[in-house]
Design brief:
Layout lengths: L3 H4 L12 E5 L7 E5 L5 E5 L12 E2 L2 H15 L3 E11 L2 E11 L36 E6 L6 E7 L23 H12 L4 H12 L9 H15 L3 H15 L4 E7 L2 E8 L1 H10 L2 E3 L12 E8 L5 E9 L4 H14 L7 E4 L3 H10 L4 E4 L1 H5 L2 H4 L4 H15 L6 H14 L6 H8 L23 H11 L9 E3 L4 E3 L4 H5 L4 H9 L26 H5 L5 H19 L4 H21 L9 H9 L29 H22 L1
Parallel strand pairs: 11-14, 14-15
Antiparallel strand pairs: 1-2, 2-3, 4-8, 5-6, 6-7, 7-8, 9-10, 10-13, 12-13, 16-17
Helix pairs in contact: 3-4, 3-5, 3-21, 4-5, 8-9, 12-13
């Protein structure tokens, strides 16, 4: 086998007789013998413990064992290594390595040697990059060959001298050999990316966990490159991979629903709903807020969660979807899939914003539900729509809010008070207020007061309305009307049970007055019971969506056991040393029984295991092209009408101050 890279190494360096020997031992270097020729050329040979130095005719069971021996020697000597040329032959269906050369990392690289490309290896297409390793044309190497009529390997060539100094082992942590990320580190980086931790923060966290930079053996750049490689591994297969993952879940999980709409090989619509979401909807699907959030991913797809309120007044999920655009057809498809997943059960009340396409889709699909507009979206427009000075604006807003949020007054009372307010401030010709009054039946709570659970949610913003909901049910101005002792039926003008599904404080006062110390059965709504949903919903797999694979469970047990053992013997040096020795012995045993497998450590295999997804054999769809959805703006931070109005008022005040100062 002729190879320019190897030909330079085939002749051992003849240093000659006219040399002298010195020993150097600097703090930043390894103890070594230095040979200097008469013409001033220096050569270094490391001083290593007995039994570590390679020697000719040394035998090894496998080529991996042989390479590991030289790597250990290099680590103690203080230099890096890299694999040189190898020769392989095919015997039957097996490919056998007959020769292998391991070089010093400062040996020259044969630039004319072509790298064999592998279509499954993502590194095969990456261009060559600059290296920070200084090449000194070092000839140090070791040569292995397969022994004839045997499966063992032996050393048949060993060049010990280097033309450069050495680095102490503790400073080799950032060498090219040591900087290669192992599987655990790559898995850690992937998990940090899933938790929205970038490479810089991930590196800092890992340094803190490992106890210092010297234990991490990699830099922030390596973490960035790993994240880049994972993204490149996914590439344009992301749409196909997410479909495959959802299909696998629908096959492995009970009562799991997943559906997609693909148009011209582009994934446009997705809907998914698991068994827990279906149980939640069956118990708590009285009121359904329907809202959309923009820019959820790099394709600007719209995330649409179906959220409700459970028996603890906490948010619960009924399903979710991703939309490519905000057309009537897209919303209609999503709502139809939602209805099919929940066996055609429609909510009593559905809340949306004033989006026309959404309104039309809701009317098409939920023909038995009452459609209500989100009050929060309407109320937020008041500062921008009503002009005037600060004092007048604040007064108008306060009075209108007090009227609009009132859930106790009847529609005729609301209309009377509305007209009085309009006349008081001379807003009869105000176009926006006139328009809002014309659709009052769609957003004013008084018009929904007789609908069960109507005040469970008054806006699509669940969190913003929670505090007001509690306040509205504890007003000291509520009035009482009646109680029937025979059937223990009670009626209250505030209609608390009808609106919320549980009795108001006025009813409790009446029941206590009549010595009724137990809530009547007819007033125990099933949605507020402790057993409203089965206990299986609270399992670890359902609560946290944990993949309970055997390998993952075993891996977590191993880490937990190691941490518990370390915690138990902390502070006891003798026990820590014993634990370290036992773990080291176990590691040596495993490494001896399980040889290094380069196939398992290829990036394509590593990323498949980290992502829990294999490369799709073929692509049935791709991610959609970006479109400009409603409200996407100009890729700047969205500014609401309230903020615009505040800025205008602030600017007006500044102008008034300047005018007064000039006067």
């Amino acid at each position: 086998m002729a190879d320019p890279e190897i030909d330079n190494l085939n002749s051992d360096q003849n240093i000659g007789d006219n040399i002298f020997v010195t020993t150097m031992d600097h703090p930043e270097s390894v103890a070594s013998n230095v040979y200097e020729t008469p013409n001033g050329t220096r050569y270094w040979t490391p001083i290593v413990p007995h039994g570590v130095k390679p020697f000719l005719k040394a035998r090894f069971t496998t080529i991996e064992q042989a390479v590991a021996m030289y790597d250990e020697y290099a680590q103690l000597a203080g230099f890096g290594t890299r694999l040189g040329t190898s020769k392989k032959v095919k015997i039957g269906n097996e490919v056998i390595t007959t020769r292998r050369y391991v070089l010093c990392s400062r040996a020259p690289v044969n630039k004319h040697k072509h790298k064999e490309t592998n279509p499954d290896d993502i590194d095969s297409t990456s261009p060559s990059r600059r290296s920070n390793v200084k090449v000194t044309d070092c000839k140090a190497c070791v040569k292995f060959r397969r022994i004839k009529k045997s499966t063992d390997y032996e050393i048949y060539g060993f060049v010990e001298q280097h033309n450069h100094g050495f680095t102490s082992p503790e400073n080799l942590d950032l060498s090219l050999k040591q900087r290669k990320l192992d599987f655990s580190t790559q898995e850690f980086i992937a998990k940090c990316r899933n938790a929205n931790l970038g490479p810089t923060k991930s590196h800092k966290v890992h340094v803190a966990i490992k106890g210092g930079h010297h234990n991490v053996h990699s830099t922030i750049v390596d973490y960035k490159n790993c994240g880049r490689d994972i993204r490149d591994f996914i590439g344009d297969r992301d749409a196909q991979m997410i479909i495959d993952k959802f299909k696998a879940r629908s096959e492995n999980k009970v009562n799991y629903t997943f559906d997609t709409h693909i148009d011209d090989m582009e994934l446009h619509l997705i809907f998914w709903c698991d068994g827990v979401s279906k149980l939640n909807y069956e118990a708590f699907g009285d009121v359904l807020p329907f809202d959309a959030t923009y820019h959820t991913n790099m394709y600007d797809m719209i995330f649409v969660p179906f959220t409700g309120v459970d028996h603890h007044k906490k948010c619960t999920i009924f399903g979710a979807g991703l939309l490519h655009n905000e057309t009537i057809e897209s919303y209609t498809w999503l709502l139809q899939k939602f209805l099919q997943a929940h066996n055609g059960k429609q909510p009593l009340l559905i809340l949306t914003d004033q989006d026309c396409a959404m309104k039309q889709a809701v009317a098409n699909v939920f023909d038995k539900s009452i459609h209500k507009l989100c009050m929060w979206h309407i109320i937020q427009k008041f500062p921008a729509k009503i002009k005037g000075n600060d004092k007048r604006n604040a007064e108008i807003k306060k009075k209108f809010h007090k009227l609009e949020w009132n859930v106790y007054i009847k529609p005729e009372t609301f209309e009377k008070r509305w007209h009085l307010l309009i006349a008081e401030y001379g807003l009869e010709e105000h176009s926006w207020l006139t328009e809002m009054y014309s659709i009052r039946e769609q957003w004013i709570p008084g018009y929904f007061r007789e609908i069960p659970m109507c005040t469970l949610m008054k806006t699509t913003s669940r969190c913003e309305s929670a505090n007001h909901l509690f306040k509205s049910n504890s007003s000291p101005h509520n009035t009482l009307v009646t109680f029937n002792k025979e059937d223990l039926s009670v009626t209250c003008k505030c209609m608390g049970f009808t609106r919320n599904g549980y009795l108001c404080r006025h009813v409790f006062c009446v029941l206590g007055h009549h010595n009724v110390h137990k809530i009547p059965t007819q007033y125990i709504h099933p949605r507020w019971r402790r057993d409203a949903i089965p206990s299986s919903v609270y399992s670890l797999e359902n609560r946290l969506s944990i993949e309970q694979s055997s390998s993952g469970r075993l891996w977590r047990n191993i880490l937990d056991n190691l941490e518990m053992c370390r915690d138990r013997v902390r502070g006891k040096i003798d026990k820590l040393e014993e634990l370290d020795a036992q773990v080291q012995a176990l590691k040596d045993k495993i490494f001896a029984e399980v040889p290094y497998d380069p196939e398992v450590n290829k990036k394509v295999v590593v990323y498949q295991e980290i992502l829990l997804h294999a490369i799709p054999e073929e692509l049935s769809c791709t991610a959609p092209k970006k479109i400009r959805n409603k409200g996407c703006g100009k890729h700047k931070r969205p500014v609401g009408s309230k903020e615009i109005a505040i800025k205008k008022l602030k600017k007006k005040r500044e102008e008034n101050v300047v005018f007064v100062g000039n006067g």
